Amino acid sequence: MPRFLRRSAHTAGLMPGSPVHVGVPADHPLRMMLFDYDAERLDERELEDPHACASLTTSPSVSWINVDGVHDTARIGQIGEQFGLHPLVVEDIAHTGQRPKLEEYDGYLFLVLRMLRWNEQKEEVEDEQISVILGAGWVLSLQERPGDVFEPLRERLRTGRGRVRSSGAGYLAYALIDSIVDQYFAVLERLGDLVEEVGEGIASDPKPQAAEAIRRLKRELLFVRKSVWPLREVLNVLQRDDSPLFASATRVFLRDAYDHVIQVIDTVETYRDMISGQLDVYMSSVSNRMNEVMKVLTMIATIFIPLSFFAGVYGMNFLHMPELQWRYGYYGILSVMGAVAVGMVFYFRRKGWL
Q1: What's the rounded Cα separation, in Å, for the pair 317 and 312?
Q2: What would the mean pLDDT of 259-272 be, rounded to a whole number?
Q3: Are 140 and 169 a contacting pair, CB within 8 Å?
Q4: Which uninterrupted H or E stretch holds 328?
Q5: CA separation (Å) from 244 to 107, 134, 170?
Q6: Is 63 exposed, middle or buried (CB count within 10 Å of its CB: 0-12, 13-18, 19+)?
Q7: 182-198, pLDDT tens digit by residue?
Q8: Architecture of domain 9-284
């Protein structure tokens, strides 16, 4: 499946709000993990029944429900009912081809983010849709498959380090966003190493494989740009909006996350410019190498032009050619041809053409 476009032709004609999974097929079961906490206590457990989420929306503590797997649309629909989510939100959760966006509904905010990771085996960027719903005192996050970048946040919740346990649900939503944005820097660091490796290879010995490496890097950077660029507008709206779901103290952190996204975008654009420059250098190196080869061949052909003239003249079959009767004519014409060739080589060197 192309990474730039999730195929969704089979959803055409369905009623709006119909949850249909669009994305990579998955066979793992849907799993719900609960972190219910306040400044004094933490309750971490797995939820088996979506109906157990009903009481969390009115709990005085902060509740974070993380769902692994959105392919089970029936259970996703049940979770949406417990939290009072709009059918269009449930549809967007199951359709994993969404771009980063922010939508405001009555009593909650719906955010779509793209979580990026570097695959060492395939040497490419992998992405995953993360849906975050922020309500009054609760946060619901849904991801496509197990494994994420939130483990440091979970450890802070378990140990009570930082301010996440003493802050509200808005700060938890910010912490999720910040964890995803921080992962962008790790991906860009790996891409930056590859950009430098390709540049050094082109500078020392431009090989045909360099063109393929440049094309692959341009594709990966374009993929990262597509995943990150819309997030700038999302965070800009969040930090400027007066939603009561975010405390005024949390907006300072949202501004910091916005600055990080701008830095990521600037880095991506810088790498893209570097790759374009490296492609120009590669093409210039190949062109220069071809010009050097053509120059050598042209010199050889130029040296043989007068020699071919002599050979053509004395290869004619006229009866009366005085030099043909000369005893040393063969050696004489070879000497003249050699002198002409050597003279032309010295002339080319004097001109700086060799």
Answers
A1: 10
A2: 94
A3: no
A4: none
A5: 10, 11, 9
A6: buried
A7: 999 999 999 999 998 88
A8: 2-Layer Sandwich (3.30)
Task: Quote the CA–CA distance of 12 and 232 in Å, as a whole number.
Answer: 30
Q: Which DSSP letter does residue 311 get? A: H
- Range(s) of the chain covered by CATH 1.20.58.340: 293-351
Look at residue 15 and give its three-state secondary structure.
coil
**Residue for token pair 């097929």:** 25
Assess contact for 51 and 82: CB atoms under 8 A: yes
Separation CA 85–CA 183 (nearest Å): 29
What sign does the CA torsion over 341, 342, 343, 345 have? Answer: positive
What fold is seen in the domain 293-351? Methane Monooxygenase Hydroxylase; Chain G, domain 1 (1.20.58)
User: Across the strands, what pairs with 129?
Assistant: 114
Tens of pLDDT along 299-334? 888 888 888 888 888 788 777 777 777 888 888 888
Question: Are the beta carbons of 18 and 91 closer than 8 angstroms?
Answer: yes
User: Does residue 85 sit in helix, strand or coil?
Assistant: coil
Q: Which two tokens stand for residue 252?
A: 């300072």
